[in-house]
Amino acid sequence: MSRWDSLDGQSINQKEIKMAITKEIVEDKIEIVGSFKVIQVRNATVIKEDGKEISRSFQRHVVTPDISAENLAKESANVQALHKQFHTDELKKEYAEHMTMK
What we know:
The chain is α+β, with helices and mostly antiparallel strands.
């Protein structure tokens, strides 16, 4: 379509409007919860149009002391550091015993 088209004999100016829509996932909150030091991670998905936020939603997941090395490697450096700090061998053992009693 050209910039100028005719509609019922009238000229109309066709403008092309471009908007930049972006999606960003941000790890915005990390909490240590309970006696087994479960790491709770909240991710925010932020949608922006031309730099202005138009939507925000949240997803949460937890990292328990028994997380596999493979899954831990998928976590952020911050979560990995907290796992190393709080999920000691002693805590992992206590957590495993607790889970077998359920």
